[in-house]
């Protein structure tokens, strides 16, 4: 697993990562989500021993990354897919990665097959790769040591919808076999379809975390019924805060509580869902609004 405890990084008087603590667990895909400049890459660099924290610590499989014996056999890392040597072929990049951590050449063919790069593509120089192909190659390099943990910075960047769907299957399978996955993105849509748990970061701080369902529940419950006025009345009488909009009623309680109150009032529900009409997108924008460039400029 990955455990960050009070992880902080300061550059002069600028704090890029401020006191973040979270755990990414085996068997689940944890999405690290935040707008540009939120501190995701800096946090991942600290987790993989590339940047020393100013304070706090990040442990991977119970140790600091640099203290892991042959870390490539335990932790697959992809921080910058475009950093691969442009003059080498994909196969050369993977062969070098395999040699560095001491795995045999069969791992190269297996890695290429896993990420769907053909023999012909593997023979081309990386400078001629599309961004999506580089991401696939980066993933193959991260997976080559058969690690238990994956730390991936913006792995879906440059992938087309089919590519994102494919990556989701790959990471899901990895997690289902007991692996731990931490992946970052600035796009909710990318993370939402892949991740079980979300850690949302804005301006270096964690602003929300939990499963998609838990985060949606924080926004309340969206409900429609055959008589919204009567339902709003019943909810208010039960002490639940209710607001009305074109999308129906938004009740500040769980969907179970709304269902029970409607049952008691004998009102038929026609629609019941966690979260506001804007869903997680609205939550993400609200939580990170004051932290993002647009929020700061406004
Ligand atoms: N070496 C450095 N020196 C000074 N500031 C830095 C350094 N590295 C990162 N920062 C700053 O820290 C902040 C967080 O950057 P980081 O790259 O971690 O963000 P990010 O969430 O990964 O963003 P993006 O989605 O754009 O990749 C930014 O304001 C960045 O300019």
TrEMBL record:
Pfam families with a match to the protein in the record: ABC_tran
Coiled-coil residue spans: none
Start and end of every ABC transporter domain? 2-228
Residue ranges spanning the membrane: these are none
InterPro entries membership: AAA+_ATPase, ABC_transporter-like_ATP-bd, ABC_transporter-like_CS, P-loop_NTPase
What SMART domains has UniProt attached to this entry?
AAA
Q: GO molecular function terms here?
A: ATP binding; ATP hydrolysis activity
Q: Which domain of life is it from?
A: Bacteria
UniProt keyword annotations, A-Z: ATP-binding, Nucleotide-binding, Transport
Q: Does the keyword Signal apply?
A: no
Q: Which family does it belong to?
A: Belongs to the ABC transporter superfamily.
* Protein name as it appears in the record: ATP-binding cassette domain-containing protein
């Amino acid at each position: 697993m990955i455990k960050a405890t009070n992880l902080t990084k300061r550059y002069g008087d600028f704090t890029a990562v401020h006191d973040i603590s979270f755990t990414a667990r085996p068997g689940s895909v944890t999405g690290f989500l935040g707008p540009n400049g939120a501190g995701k890459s800096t946090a991942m660099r600290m987790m993989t021993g590339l940047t020393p924290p100013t304070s706090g610590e990040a442990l991977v499989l119970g140790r600091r990354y640099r203290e892991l014996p042959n870390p490539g056999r335990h932790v697959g890392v992809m921080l910058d897919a475009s950093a691969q040597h442009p003059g080498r072929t994909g196969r050369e990049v993977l062969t070098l990665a395999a040699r560095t951590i001491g795995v045999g050449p069969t791992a190269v063919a297996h890695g290429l097959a896993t990420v769907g790069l053909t023999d012909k593509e593997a023979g081309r120089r990386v400078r001629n790769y599309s961004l999506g192909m580089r991401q696939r190659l980066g993933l193959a390099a991260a997976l080559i040591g058969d690690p238990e943990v994956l730390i991936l910075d913006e792995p879906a960047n440059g992938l087309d919808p089919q590519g994102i769907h494919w990556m989701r299957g790959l990471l899901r399978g990895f997690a289902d076999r007991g692996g731990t996955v931490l992946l970052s993105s600035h796009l909710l849509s990318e993370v939402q379809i892949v991740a079980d748990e979300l850690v949302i970061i804005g301006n270096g701080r964690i602003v929300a975390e939990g499963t998609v369902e838990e985060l949606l529940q924080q926004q309340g419950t969206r409900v429609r019924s055959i008589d919204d006025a009567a339902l709003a009345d019943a909810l208010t009488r039960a002490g639940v805060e209710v607001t009305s909009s074109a999308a129906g009623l938004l009740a500040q309680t769980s969907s179970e509580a709304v269902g029970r109150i409607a049952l008691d009032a004998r009102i038929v529900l026609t629609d019941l869902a966690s979260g506001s009409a804007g869903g997680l997108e609205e939550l993400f924008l609200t939580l990170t609004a004051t932290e993002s460039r647009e929020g700061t400029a406004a």
